[in-house]
Specification:
3-stranded antiparallel beta sheet; about 35% helix; globular
């Protein structure tokens, strides 16, 4: 395993930057759901056994999964004051290792630990590690074999039958073996300020706002109207990137050729226009300006956000004063953004417990629905039937979104997500294309120079690649 992992890491070294998806290192306070839910799977609460370890080591990059585990895994007994450990009812200690993503820190440390896994002491072995969509394929490869297939753990196709198909596809190897599982799905919507929409469009009604933003031409027309009223349509350069990049017609890399999709060029053209015309605030994703633009004093019409983004980032940035002043619509085109997957590390000495965690937190309809129904979380969870039930529930609403049932909109987008064009190079390509064109958007270099800068950066990052093709 060590030799295989080293070769893949050397071939696909990832740079950091504006990591997408649940990869923001923003933290949120653990939600209080008033008690742990009961799983509706056939999982059996694990008992302490001499055949398994006494420490469950979980690696992640922020506290999102940690809070879901502590609040919703039924066998949690206690959480330490500093939250570094969780004690289960059977006496097993869960040890949390959280390495932020900055400068590729999480993946670098995870790679080192996985390469040392075979010789590690039992209580030091990684049992579970978390993955993000942009680099999932790096870890679920059958050749690398660092993530255990679910079938080896005893998790069947029936167990994951109610999960969204794309959440299974993205973490399946070339043989079709699913090697990770998720409690969430991450379709995207356009979140907008109701007060600004009323000033610009004369209405904040989600259906009417959607009509005004139904395609990119209409979206751009509203951007001009917003500018005339003294607002920015978007905060920064990367805001619309995922709506374009996750609708590409072919993978970033095939063989040794990098192909820049026409959708990526559409993002470049739109962002240049928005920058030149003052339709955006020239911010960068996750920057202070970008976060402040979501606050009560912000002057930005809206933001492209997926499910996790609304509850994990936007609510915090908007603050209490923002409750009721936001709504969502589908926007100009369907897209997805990120997501987090739970993988069992090869060499875990707790396979029975890992299986139980996966079954209860990612396959239990009741537990996942309770996450969605919790007013402080409202995750869009990975249960098709469960989300359909909540979408049809006339009593379900988001106070933050002014009483809107946003799950109904997400449930329309989620089944359309297609992961067939992902590649192991996605994180690097997505980051480098955004980095290379920043100076172009600001008018410091011309288009050809920006293209050359991307070509240079991507081939330096991935020396095995030989050419870049532009549309």
């Amino acid at each position: 395993m060590k030799k295989k992992l080293v070769s893949v890491i050397l071939a696909s070294v990832m740079l950091t930057g504006t990591l997408a998806g649940c990869g923001s290192d923003a933290s949120s306070a653990p939600a209080d759901n008033g008690g742990n839910a009961n799983a509706d799977t056939q999982a059996v609460a694990p008992a302490a056994s001499g055949d398994e370890g006494t420490v469950l080591n979980i690696w992640c990059w922020n506290d999102e999964f940690q809070s879901r585990f502590n609040d919703y895994y039924p066998d949690v007994e206690a959480v330490s004051e500093d939250k570094s450990t969780t004690t289960l009812k059977n006496g097993i200690t869960v040890k949390w290792t959280i390495n932020p993503t900055t400068d590729n820190n999480y993946q670098n440390k995870l790679d080192e630990a996985l390469m040392a896994q075979e010789g590690a002491a039992a209580d030091d072995k990684i049992d579970i590690f978390l993955l993000e969509a942009d680099y999932a394929l790096k870890y679920v490869s059958a050749d690398v074999d660092v993530a255990v297939p679910l079938s080896e753990l005893g998790i069947t196709a029936d167990d994951v039958a109610d999960q969204y198909q794309y959440t299974k596809d993205i973490v399946s190897d070339a043989n079709g073996e699913q090697r990770a599982t998720s409690w969430q799905a991450a379709p995207g919507l356009f979140a907008y300020r109701r007060s600004i929409a009323k000033d610009v469009l004369g209405t904040d009604d989600p259906e009417q706002v959607q009509t005004a933003l139904a395609d990119w031409d209409k979206f751009n027309e509203v951007a001009a109207q917003a500018k005339d009223k003294g607002y920015f349509m978007l905060s920064g350069y990367q805001d619309s990137f995922r709506a374009f990049s996750n609708n590409v017609e072919k993978p970033w890399v095939e063989g040794t050729t990098v192909t820049v999709d026409s959708n990526i060029m559409s993002w470049i053209e739109q962002t240049k226009e928005f920058t030149d015309k003052g339709y955006n605030h020239k911010s960068s994703l996750w920057s202070d300006t970008w976060a402040q633009d979501q606050g009560v004093d912000g002057q930005v019409f809206g933001f492209f956000y997926s499910t996790w983004g609304i509850n994990f980032t936007l609510v915090g940035n908007a603050g209490e004063a923002g409750f009721g002043d936001w709504a969502v619509c589908q926007g100009p085109q369907p897209y997805y953004w990120g997501g987090t997957w739970v993988a069992a590390a090869r060499g875990t000495d707790n396979p029975t417990l890992v299986k139980d965690v996966m079954l209860k937190l990612t396959c239990s309809k009741d537990i996942m629905k309770s996450m969605t129904e919790n007013r402080d979380i409202q995750d869009y969870t990975n249960t098709v039937s469960g989300m359909q039930e909540i979408a049809a529930d006339p009593d379900f609403k988001s106070e933050f979104l002014g009483g809107q049932n946003h799950i109904a909109l997400f449930s329309e987008v989620a089944p359309t997500i297609d992961m067939s064009n992902v590649s192991p190079y996605d994180q690097g390509c997505n980051e480098q294309i955004q980095n290379a064109f920043g100076d172009y958007f600001d008018g410091n270099i011309d288009l050809d120079t920006a293209k050359t800068n991307f070509e240079t950066a991507i081939i330096e990052l991935y020396p095995e690649l030989t050419e870049v093709v532009w549309p």
